[in-house]
TrEMBL record:
It comes from Solibacillus palustris. Residues 5-35 form the Flagellar basal body rod protein N-terminal domain. InterPro entries: Flag_bb_rod_N, Flagellar_basal_body_rod_CS, Flagellar_FlgE/F/G, Flg_bb/hook_C_dom, FlgE/F/G-like, LlgE_F_G-like_D1. Residues 230-274 form the Flagellar basal-body/hook protein C-terminal domain. Belongs to the flagella basal body rod proteins family. This is Flagellar hook-basal body protein. Its main location: other. Transmembrane segments: none annotated.
Amino acid sequence: MFKGFYTVATGMVAQQRKTEILTNNMANANTPGFKSDQTTIRSFPDMLMSAVGSTNIPTENGFALKRLDTVGALNAGVYLQETMPDQAQGQIYSTGLTTDVALINSQVPTDVASGNSGQIFFRLENENGTESYTRNGNFTLDGAGNLVNPMGLFVLDANGNRMQFANDNIRIDSTGAIFDENNVQVGVLGVAFSANPDVLVKRGNGLYNTLDGADLPSAYGQDGVQFSMQQQYLEGSNVDASKAMTDLLTAYRAFEANQKVLQAYDKSMDKAVNEIGRV
């Protein structure tokens, strides 16, 4: 009976966690560059239950031989195995701001080991000097003229250096080259490539980091990697709001179903303790 409580509880915890992830997806449906999280729910291995019995052997001393009688398999519940971002390209929309840039995938190779498609990201410098990565090209100039993201992290060029401009009157072509108001090239936007983005650690605010803290390689010159940029545009979230709402209702109903089973177990336990135990 108590094992049933634990099994149902794992289902409720898994569905609650799934509901939280879907809710977060819907809350970021309008966040530039946001990648929706996908969940995978798996079951724990079943346990084979056996009962200890005995067989009496007709001897003078009444020898009893112990044996195991198979009762059957018992499900041990489920768990949320992992959460992975969906790296599909979001819709591109116009903003009219010269410091906004949309990163557009033209062609990225598939990782042989994992079977996943690679991904490209803008390069950012953290407060501690390490790099983070993002698909959100909603950039601006700070008080010193540095190109920064909404969190204030410095946007890096193709050589890993910060970029500083006198004003926002800049032009960025499809290759990432940046030109000032005199049409003189002053830099190239830094773009990194990850062969398997599922191994990246997703932080808040659309940022990603590598597991070991090492920098990703540059996307420029990578075999099979083709991309372009579009100034005064942003990549929108790839969240499908209608699908997320449907999945949210499904997860909620599954949570309710587990809750009903838990209540049934509770009533059975109440009878066993307060009524049958009194007889």
